[in-house]
Amino acid sequence: MSDTSSSVRTAYLVAIVGGVLFFVLSVGLLGVWPARVIDAQTRAMAPEHPLPRTAAEQRGRVIYGREGCASCHTQQIRYLHQDMARFGAPTLAWETHLDTPHLWGTRRVGPDLSRIGGTRSLDWQYTHLFAPRSVVTGSVMPAYPSLFDGAPDRPRQEARDLVAYLDSLGRARELAAPEGEARARDACNCPDDEMAQMAFAGTMNTHPARARRTDEAPRLPAGTLPRGQQLYAAHCATCHGERGLGDGPGAAGLLPKPANLAEHEYAEERVAAALWNGVSGTAMPAWRDLAPEDLASISTAVQNLSVAQGDPPVPEHLTTLGARVFTANCVQCHGERGDGRGPAAESLLMAPKNFVRQRVSLAEGVRVLRSGVAGSPMAPWTARLTDAELVAVAHYVRELYAPAPQGDIRR
Ligand code: HEC
Ligand code: HEC
Ligand code: HEC
Question: Are the C-beta atoms of 299 and 272 separated by less than 8 Å?
Answer without folding.
Answer: yes
